[in-house]
Queue: 3 jobs
Job 1
Amino acid sequence: MRSHTVLASISALLVSACASAPPVLADQRLIPAAMETDPAGARGDAADDPALWLHPDDASKSLILGTNKREGLVVYNLNGKEVQRLPIGLINNVDLRQSADRPYDVAVASNDQVHAISIFLIDRATGEVSHRGDIPTNRTEPYGICSAREGNHDYAGVTYKDGTVEIWAVSASPLEFAGQLVKTMKLGTQIEGCVFDETQGLLFVGEENRGLWKFAYHDEAPAAVLIDEIGSATGLVADVEGVTLWRGKEGKGWLVASAQSANRFIVYDRQAPHAHRGSFSIVANPELGIDEVTHTDGLDIFSGALPGWPRGIVIVQDDGNPQSGVDQNFKVASWAEIEAALNLPQYEAE
């Protein structure tokens, strides 16, 4: 990390601070943005949630899938330039899993317009993204979504504003697609962000105005276990929006949640008891002409090496570019810089 960049970012943050600005915690580190995408392309609250797709042969050709919840799915290259747009409806969240045993990868998205799980196929040779179809959830407004792959089976976790969490078995190929509801859990109030940890058999979920939870989703009747609560000493505040993982081998790594109203991200051990490791914010990078990140909704971490980012990246939605609700886009920060700033052990990526 270049110290003069960080100092410039800190100075900019302090100059712009006002009485209503969220406080910077003692263990909160300020990480400069390393890249940003083109705007999602709609006025107002548009961008929401990203997911990274790794090109199997050339990491420089990897892609960022981002939702424009007023229009559909937007695809960016690693320089942040838009390369594809799929205006299929009101897509809120997106997630994907990759598998070398087939010539395509599967992404799932929550589609508020048709109350369905939207299925996308990503050609592993070309990177082209195609909309395969929609699986009705038979419930109003699927909100958040996350994906899992175990063996040869794909799953989608779907969350709702009434606190319901569903797990769906999903089957998708160029010839067919289908979905079956296999399990339902319940929290008390509105939830959105979720992430599967297949290695540990856990589903992490953010209840926006309560805290961070986990379910052992293979259990017949998974019980909700509270990991952290809003207002605790960790700095977790409402809304608890995006939830993601840095995945190390043998279940090691980090669980990260977006504390939206404080412009910060809380880091925990991936493994129980999920000890708090600190927090970070993504601040402006004046050298690259990138503004700070505020009021993040969705986020995604890629744990492998990418060109210029040997320890991976975190991709986050930015509410304002630079003003709130204007030209919303996605920002990228280096995981190596976060790792160093929080003094995290360097695990081998999963």
Note: Confidence is low (pLDDT under 50) at residues 1-19.
Job 2
Amino acid sequence: MPFNTHLVMSVPTHPIELLRFNTCGSVDDGKSTLIGRLLYDSKSIMEDQLEALERSADITGGGQINLANLTDGLRAEREQGITIDVAYRYFATPRRKFIVADTPGHVQYTRNMVTGASTANLSIVLVDARQGVIEQSRRHTYIASLLRIPHLVIAINKMDLVGWSEARFNEIRETFESFLPRLDIKDVKFIPLSALNGDNVVDPSPHTPWYSGPTLLGHLESVHIASDWNLQGLRFPVQWVNRPNNPTDAQLHDFRGLSGQIASGIVRVGQRVMVLPSGLKSTIQKIWTLDGELDEAFCPQSVTLQLAHDLDISRGDMIVGLDSLPGMSNDLLAKVCWMNPRPLQKGRKYFLKHATQTVQAVVTSLESRINIQTIEPEFEPAELAMNDIGEIRIKTAKPIVFDGYGTNRLTGAFILIEQGTNATVAAGMLNPPMEAVKPEYNDFAI
């Protein structure tokens, strides 16, 4: 193998059907119980886990296992009956594999919800049927929209505590539908259920004859996700310049590969590409994976590319196709979710991590802050407090190559890092660039 194999992930030619989803909602809406029910009813719990739960003091007076403890792993979570950290669980059915993130409901842990939802294909917003739509319901729905999560499920939980009332279900649904048109979410499903008792989670409930839709698991198994990945416009952030270590084959002394994960698009042998920010052009000579050479690869595969020309390329550069070019600028407009107790104010300096590079940046202005109750912007706020969502303008020390987050979730996302502490203080989504890189940029015959 002509490169450092530990740097390249093996990816099958045919992608495995994997759904990433998160659960969110307010405190005590039943998020952890719902995931526990999914794991329990889909028989995805190890025998020793089940035995430990049965032996623990977490068994209720009625003899029911506390399913929430399958995800609430911290002692403080079990003692308080809340979720604090993001818990990831894995399970599978004959139709699909799943990675689920159980995210906290408290307002103070909204940043954890953003973390858990950032890579999701689908988001489940739980609503307590007794409480209806509250501020956290709106906040989490808005964040799901902001993160461009393609599919949304509104799980109206604890329906057993409102007598399985169809009128109550419709009332909550109509409240959501009054503000959903202002959000960019195209696929929304409403499901009445009881996570504690398992109604409409894995098996249909006899208590909802008025509901003709799928169960939650049935929807998770069948929702169409094949088109969620962006296969338009090649974007390949270079993560590593791959040189062989002490090659025994003389022909490998000159091998120079570029390793990374394809952020969007398809790359083919013989394809003409541009390297940004230099603007130099070349041709794809070979595409390597751990399993050997490929004629083509696509998002989100991890590969090593070998170019026909020996160009000056390093970590942080981006290889792009010539058919659809990104923007490049050091003046950025973005929406951010502020995650730090110290408020964000104009003039503060941070590190901005985008794709595979990190640059120095300064916040030049606070454009607006979102009022979660009305989903409307409040212009020119003095600061953004923790868990606030707003739009800011940033100046970076050098231009970055990017797309709008709505076009590409990987090249349109960034985080802000506090200098000195290295704490992540914000997650950001870039607005579309004012103009794309010109095809003739630094063009010369190669």
Note: Confidence is low (pLDDT under 50) at residues 1-15, 57-61, 72-84.
Job 3
Amino acid sequence: MELLRFATAGSVDDGKSTLIGRLLYDSKSIFEDQLQAVEKTSLDRGDEYVNLALLTDGLRAEREQGITIDVAYRYFSTPKRSFIIADTPGHIQHTRNMVTGASTADLVLVLVDARNGIIEQTRRHALIASILRIPHLVLCVNKMDLMDYSKDVFESIKEEFQEYATRLDIKDVTAIPVSALTGDNVVSRSLNMPWYDGYPLLRFLEEVYIGSDRNLVDLRFPVQMVIRPISDSHQRDFRGYGGQLASGILEKGTEVLALPSGFKSKIARIEGPDGEIEQAVPYQSVVVCLEDDIDISRGDMLCRPNNKPIIGQDITSMLCWMSDVPLDTRRKYLIKHTTKTLKAMVTKLHYRLNVNTSHRDLNVTSLELNEIGRADFRLSSPIFFDDYKKNKETGSFIVIDEATNATVAAGLISGEAFLDA
């Protein structure tokens, strides 16, 4: 069954957790004991209704404050598709968590409170979705019940957002009027909004086409480990290379090039979790066996001879800083790119991006927590990469503090500056 990953975004109290709770409840994707626990907690809190947001707000602090702090992942499926939801925080202080949750999404739901319209945080999250190259964006105009299900209110918000979205790099924008609290247009079509002739939210999520979003052309297989026999009971001549296929398609008989050695061979067989398979597609974890015994180790990459990634020690990236300790251009950091970890330094900080206006601040010497900027890195050895726009897996990396081993930033390799709108 096809899998759709999507993330929620928007400002505090726009109803993200309630919308997800409604999706889970109306699609019958929660257990009875979960519903009973939510009903009890709602009663204890003095809520006048069953607070479905409690299905995702799992931290005690989240329930006490009524906001989302950490990224909450939920899973459900319908007969047509399986889903992984990332419920991301809306508060500006937790922008890094929003970036984390949305980084693997095929689609982002940006919620807007119909009473408030498009606000600063709406633009912020739409801009981040654009930087992350998320191909599909759904503008959910929520709390329509509080605005008497007004068509004029919805159309005004939709037009304002679409005008802003024309400055961003988002392929597909769809607007849906909903009420997460009452369930209007969430799973079933709303009788209160007969003027809306589009799909309800769940139907849209089931139907949106994502087949062309994955890169099936550029074969990239970063080697995570070399697998050899560990006892006499195993096949003595077995030598496989384990890893997750980042992009492209692997098939038996495919000619591949090993980087950095440059040796060529062909795929002899592919082993999956349940035995040998004929073909592997992106994000499958497999073991690849080659016809020739060549020198390959962790951090190497298999690709097609006539379709190689970029090889280099200097990269330019959009950087989202995730640490309380600011970026120090004089320090050395570790960069983890696919299966390779190596030392690096920032050689130039080009600008800091104002995520509210998308303008660039050129007078910048560092990046603070939750700030996004453009930076050049010099690596201690070459890596095999693609532009993030072309390949998310080989075009992204994380920055690690060498002293604490904490992740301090996420980077998107880009050969072009983000458009100054």
Note: The chain has three domains: 3-207, 221-303, 310-413.
